[in-house]
Amino acid sequence: RVRPLDRLSRPDATMISAKAGCVTMTRFAYGTGIHLDRFDPDAGNILVLNTLRGALDHQTDGGSVDTGAGESFVVDCSRAEYWLEGDPDHMQLNLTIPHQAMVETAERWFGFVPDDRLWTRRVKIGGPHSAWPALLDYATRALTREGEVASDTVLARHIEEMLCVELLRQWASAAGVSLETGARCAAPAYVRAAEEIMEAEAREAPSIGDVAKRVGVSARTLSGGFQKFRGISPRAFLAARRLEGFRRNLEKMPKDVTVTAIASAWGFSNFGALAGRYRDRFGETPSQTRGRVGRGTRPN
Question: Same domain, yes or no, for 152 and 227?
Answer without folding.
Answer: no
